[in-house]
Design goal:
The protein is α+β, with helices and mostly antiparallel strands. The protein has one domain: Double Stranded RNA Binding Domain (2-Layer Sandwich), CATH 3.30.160. Helix content is 37%, strand content 35%. The protein is built from two helices and four strands. The chain has a four-stranded mixed sheet, covered by helices on one side. α1 (14-30) links the parallel β1 (2-8) and β2. The termini are far apart. 15% of the residues are buried.
Length: 107
């Protein structure tokens, strides 16, 4: 998995990067074929904004979240991303039900 973190009007500190990586582990537990992750963190006056683009095999997922605190915005972002990844995973799974064979009754 390639991880790219950029900050707009914000310096990405090692603590912030480590926090992001620990939160992204939760998402990569659900899906093992993550190709690329791009995270953009930005500040506009009092609004902290976090965006993520996740490139999976067969799908690109874009999620964004805003909050007054960057860590809270990242938490909200990862919750949204987790729901999107699970939704994508469920769509990929086979929906066909296999018929169950019942044993014959012996007399």
């Amino acid at each position: 998995m390639n991880l790219k973190v950029t900050g707009l009007h914000l310096e990405v500190t090692p603590a912030l990067r480590e926090f992001l990586e620990s939160k992204l582990e939760r998402v990569t537990r659900h899906v093992d074929h993550v190709i690329d992750v791009t995270v953009t963190l930005s500040v506009d006056k009092l609004v902290q904004k976090a965006e993520v683009n996740v490139h999976l095999s067969g799908k690109d997922i874009h999620v964004e979240a805003t909050d007054s605190d960057m860590y809270a915005a990242i938490d909200s972002l990862m919750d949204k991303l987790d729901r999107q990844v699970l939704k994508h995973k469920e769509k990929q799974s086979e929906h066909r039900v296999t018929p169950q064979v019942q044993p014959e009754a012996t007399l």
